[in-house]
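If I may wish for something, please sit down with the protein I am sending here and say whether tokens and residues agree:
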Amino acid sequence: MDAETASYIINYFSHLLTDVEKKALRHHSSLIKTKNLTNEALIKMYYKKEWLSTDQSVLELLKDGYGNFELNVACRVLLEHAQKVFLNLCPRCNKLARTPQAKQCRHCQFDWHLNSAINGK
């Protein structure tokens, strides 16, 4: 699996993540937001709200970096929930569209809006 597909799965099928994976995602996102913060009270608030975590199971998921976390989680989601994940591939170039609802390819610019209307989708 490539990074683009992994990111797509994390972004559009996050409801299929486990609670610990969701916490790890929230932790990573909060780390980015607090990277340059010097306000200790605000950082404590992030921990109190559980936006940042000290849970070892959460930190373990992120120990090899966010890219590996995304790949591992996306692979697990596909293995366990393949029937619930829709990879919206372009009918012309077979590359992944930007979103599950997209009807125009960002790679080759092919537009399949009309095809959907004709086929009743």
About this structure: The chain has two domains: 3-87, 88-121. Residues 19-34 form the longest helix (16 residues). Residues 88-121 form one domain. The two ends are 28 Å apart (CA to CA).
